[in-house]
Amino acid sequence: MALSPSVYAPQLNAIILKHNHIVELELRNSFAPIIHTYHSHGHAFQVVETGPVNSNSSIPVKRFKGRQPMRRDTITLAAGQYVRVRIKADNPGVWYQHCHQEQHNLSGMAFTFIEAPDVMQQTLRVPQEMLEFCRILGHPTQGNSAGRFGSDMAGIDPPLAINGTANSITGT
């Protein structure tokens, strides 16, 4: 079940990544004539391509080739620009990806990599102190994002409208 998007709250905008897969993500700034700064937690991504969102633009497409494309955890997208980044899903965890402008982040320009959840189930252990803290607060410590089982999300708030910048993901 851990590899099924249905067990994660829709508010997460969860993208499930399989362990050690190579993933390319295309980020687009096509919504407004302002700069967006994309930040990745859990990874330093490789920048493999930048270019205009609109194919009629005079901005050239730049493809970064070679053995060592530049690595970043933050990149700025100018108005009308896209960037293609690549990561290797070799860091099991739950990693937040977001626009650094707080108002954009809060309006939904964010998503979450759930990376190698099957590996996490086998290797990560929640400290007993944290389980006890959850018990005291009345938070479930088993089940899906709603503390239920399977795809039952009863009891959680509905997701916000999403205006995110992640338009496509490809992987191998």
The rounded distance between the terminal residues' Cα atoms is 21 Å
Class from secondary-structure proportions? mainly beta
Integer average pLDDT: 82
Using the alpha-carbon principal axes, give the shape: globular
Helix content: 10-25%
Major β-sheet profile: 6 strands, antiparallel
- Extract low-pLDDT stretches: 161-172
Radius of gyration, taken over Cα atoms and rounded to an integer in Å? 18 Å
Q: Which range does the strand content fall in? A: 25-35%
- In total, how many beta strands? 11
The number of helical elements comes to 3
List the helices and strands in order. EEEEEEEEEHEHHE
Draw up the topology in text.
Layout: E1 14-17, E2 22-28, E3 36-40, E4 45-52, E5 62-63, E6 71-72, E7 74-77, E8 81-88, E9 93-99, H1 102-106, E10 110-115, H2 117-123, H3 128-137, E11 166-171
Parallel strand pairs: 1-10
Antiparallel strand pairs: 2-8, 2-11, 3-7, 3-9, 4-5, 4-6, 4-8, 9-10
